[in-house]
TrEMBL record:
SMART domains hit by this protein: Proteasome_A_N
Protein name: Proteasome subunit alpha type
Subunit structure: The 26S proteasome consists of a 20S proteasome core and two 19S regulatory subunits.
Biological processes annotated in GO: ubiquitin-dependent protein catabolic process
Domain of life (superkingdom): Eukaryota
PANTHER family xrefs: PROTEASOME SUBUNIT ALPHA/BETA (PTHR11599)
Entries under InterPro entries matching the protein: Proteasome_alpha, Proteasome_alpha-type, Proteasome_alpha1, Proteasome_asu_N, Proteasome_sua/b
Length: 248
């Protein structure tokens, strides 16, 4: 069966029951550079691997602050991510103006998922080609969500999306039981270790190509600076998750 007969818009079903344009958008997320998130009882950490289009260009931004209590990491088309980022910031501002409090994280993620799903219901539109990891804190606790171009969204203890993210998820499956009681420094080291597992053999982590954002119950969203990143990357050589088990 010729695929091109059914992929000219996102409202035509193939005989196999697929919407090819939605699958293409999901593939765009898989082709993006890896980003991941993990959370404990008090903190959530976002880690991203940044790329540069050429040696003459700077590194692309992979994380965006939405509000003091919320941020996103992206994999896929950066232009589409900026559209969703602007929408989320506007929603947070309107909620704060109306209710004088921060926007609940889960409710905003639902709005983003609904907006993404609407893009799959019209032949004149295309799905967003970007996946988001949404980190946030509200009165209900610490949250880490993933949104998909299909309109689905999920809440995770830890998750990785983008190119070669399976290696990071395999690392998470081995150690996620430690994250809940981990302190901020341990969470950061776990995140960087997962990123290191996912990069190519000829690549090297450094303070220029990796981005780490942190958020805590009593801490607004901030990025680690270059010196802090350099120090944490240096600690990876001696970091052993088994020592955390012994301490417990």
């Amino acid at each position: 069966m010729l695929k091109h007969l059914y992929d000219t818009d996102c409202v035509t079903w193939s005989p196999q029951g697929k919407l090819f344009q939605v699958e293409y958008a999901m593939e765009a997320v898989k082709q993006g550079s890896i980003c991941l998130g993990l959370k404990s009882n008090d903190h959530v950490v976002l880690c991203s691997l940044k790329r540069q289009p050429s040696e003459l260009a700077g590194y692309q931004e992979k994380q965006f602050k939405i509000d003091d209590h919320m941020a996103i990491a992206i994999a896929g088309l950066t232009a589409d991510a900026r559209v969703l980022c602007k929408y989320m910031r506007t929603e947070c501002l309107e909620y704060k103006y109306t209710y004088e409090s921060h926007h609940p994280v889960g409710r905003l993620v639902f709005k983003v998922a609904e907006k993404s799903q609407h893009k799959t219901q019209s032949g004149a539109k295309r799905p967003y080609g970007v996946g988001l990891l949404v980190a946030g804190i509200d009165p209900n606790g610490v949250h880490l969500f993933e949104t998909c171009p299909s309109g689905n969204y999920y809440e995770y203890k830890c998750q990785a999306i983008g190119s070669r993210s399976q290696a990071a998820r395999t690392y998470f499956e081995s150690w996620f039981h430690l994250f809940q009681k981990s302190n901020l420094e341990q969470l950061i080291l776990h995140g960087l270790s997962a990123i290191k597992k996912a990069i190519m053999e000829d690549e090297e982590l450094n303070e220029k190509n990796v981005e780490v954002g942190i958020l805590g119950k009593n801490q607004k969203f901030t990025h680690l600076n270059a010196q802090e990143l350099k120090n944490y990357i240096a600690q990876l050589e001696t970091f052993n998750p088994n020592s955390q088990i012994q301490q417990e």
